[in-house]
């Protein structure tokens, strides 16, 4: 049994993330014919077809999807392993984007670990909604983005339809999306229910309104903001009900459920996006690995929450 070729696996991941052999060739700095030959040899190595013709392009077979899952893990582990031994002298800049919903909860752990390991590196942080961060990733304005997956994926898919260079979203964490109100007020009993939510295009807003409509409850939008601190202030003041991922809950909030007339909401999938075009960025590779570890190990230990 000959070992798998890491370079071939890296090319496979690039094809899956870019959506074409041509863009993958640019990302891995090879000719398109070299990329095609790598995939032919990889198919010969595992004895299975990886790609099928799909119109003018190709798509992954079922075996190809299985191999892609392993390829991502193998490539990531190799990158993280090498970075562990080379990271001491790394300097430069890495640009990270995330919605402010996640900044308060995730950034202290992520930035703390990264700064201790790489004191000469500079991290630029941009806080914007997920769909805007997907645009920045596509344009190369930022290197990494922690996003709400559905919002970013919608933007990425629309971009692929136009033939640009948007990349996929890697799921790194799944949390419950919860109804929240003030633990000191009873605003959730009002009819129509006053809501504090994001912009009309926000997936959480759409899911919340649809859930209330299915339950036969009327609602009115009282407060609109993409800033989670502002939305949380409206909730804690007893002005409105909102929806938040579990890790964003704060002391003084009460979680609502079906017994209160609020149906369960879809899960919140948190993803990681990478800008792949251009020169390799070791700092971005290392930060991506630390983001995965931090979010995987994150404990949901917000104090003082009431769930009734």
Q: What name goes with the CATH superfamily of the largest domain? A: Periplasmic binding protein-like II
Helix/strand-derived class? alpha/beta
Provide the domain count: 3
The shape, in one word, is: globular
Beta-strand segment tally: 13
Strand content: 15-25%
**Helicity range of the residues?**
40-55%
The string of secondary-structure elements, in order, is HHHEEHEHEHEHEEEHEHEEEHE
Gyration radius, to the nearest Å?
22 Å
- The DSSP helix count reads 10
By CATH, the topology of the largest domain is D-Maltodextrin-Binding Protein, domain 2
Could you give the distance between the termini?
57 Å
Largest sheet: 5 strands, mixed
In short:
The protein has 308 residues and is an alpha/beta fold. It has 3 domains: 1-88, Winged helix-like DNA-binding domain superfamily/Winged helix DNA-binding domain (Arc Repressor Mutant, subunit A, Orthogonal Bundle), CATH 1.10.10; 90-173 and 268-308, 3-Layer(aba) Sandwich (D-Maltodextrin-Binding Protein, domain 2); 177-266, Periplasmic binding protein-like II (D-Maltodextrin-Binding Protein, domain 2, 3-Layer(aba) Sandwich), CATH 3.40.190.
Provide a descriptive summary of the structure in words.
The chain has 3 domains: 1-88, Orthogonal Bundle (Arc Repressor Mutant, subunit A), CATH 1.10.10; 90-173 and 268-308, D-Maltodextrin-Binding Protein, domain 2; 177-266, 3-Layer(aba) Sandwich (D-Maltodextrin-Binding Protein, domain 2). The model is unreliable at 159-166 and 301-308 (pLDDT under 50). Helices cover 45% and strands 22% of the residues. By secondary structure, the protein is an alpha/beta fold. It starts with 5 loop residues before the first helix and ends with a strand. The strands form 4 sheets. Strands 4-3-5-12-6 form a 5-stranded mixed beta sheet, with helices on both faces. Strands 10-7-11-13 form a 4-stranded mixed beta sheet. Strands 1-2 form a two-stranded antiparallel sheet. It comes from Methylobacterium indicum. The chain crosses the membrane at residues 221-244. This is LysR family transcriptional regulator. Pfam families: HTH_1 (PF00126), LysR_substrate (PF03466). Residues 4-61 form the HTH lysR-type domain.
């Amino acid at each position: 049994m000959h070992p798998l070729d890491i370079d071939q696996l890296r090319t496979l991941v690039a094809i899956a993330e870019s959506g074409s052999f041509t863009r993958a060739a640019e990302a891995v700095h090879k000719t398109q014919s070299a990329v095609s030959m790598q995939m032919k040899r990889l198919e010969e190595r595992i004895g299975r077809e990886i790609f099928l013709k799909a119109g003018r392009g190709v798509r992954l077979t079922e075996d190809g999807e299985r191999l892609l899952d392993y390829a991502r893990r193998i490539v990531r582990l190799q990158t993280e392993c090498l970075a562990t031994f080379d990271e001491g002298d790394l300097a430069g800049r890495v640009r990270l984007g995330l919605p402010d919903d996640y900044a308060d909860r995730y950034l202290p752990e992520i930035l703390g670990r990264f700064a201790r390991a790489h004191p000469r590196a500079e991290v630029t942080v941009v806080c914007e909604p997920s769909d805007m961060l997907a645009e920045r990733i596509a344009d190369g304005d930022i290197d990494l983005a922690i996003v709400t997956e559905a919002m970013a994926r919608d933007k990425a898919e629309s971009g692929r339809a136009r033939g640009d260079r948007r990349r996929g979203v890697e799921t790194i964490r799944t949390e419950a999306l919860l109804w929240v109100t003030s633990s000191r007020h009873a605003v959730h009993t009002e009819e129509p229910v006053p809501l504090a939510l994001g912009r009309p295009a926000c997936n959480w807003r759409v899911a919340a309104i649809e859930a209330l409509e299915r339950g036969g409850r009327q609602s009115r939008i009282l407060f609109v903001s993409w800033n989670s601190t502002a939305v949380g202030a409206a909730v804690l003041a007893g002005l409105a009900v909102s929806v938040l991922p579990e890790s964003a809950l704060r002391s003084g909030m009460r979680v609502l459920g079906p017994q209160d007339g609020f149906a369960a909401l879809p899960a919140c999938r948190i993803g990681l996006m990478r800008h792949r075009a251009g020169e390799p960025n070791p700092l971005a590779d290392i930060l991506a690995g630390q983001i995965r570890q931090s979010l995987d190990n994150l404990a949901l230990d917000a104090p003082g929450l009431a769930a009734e």
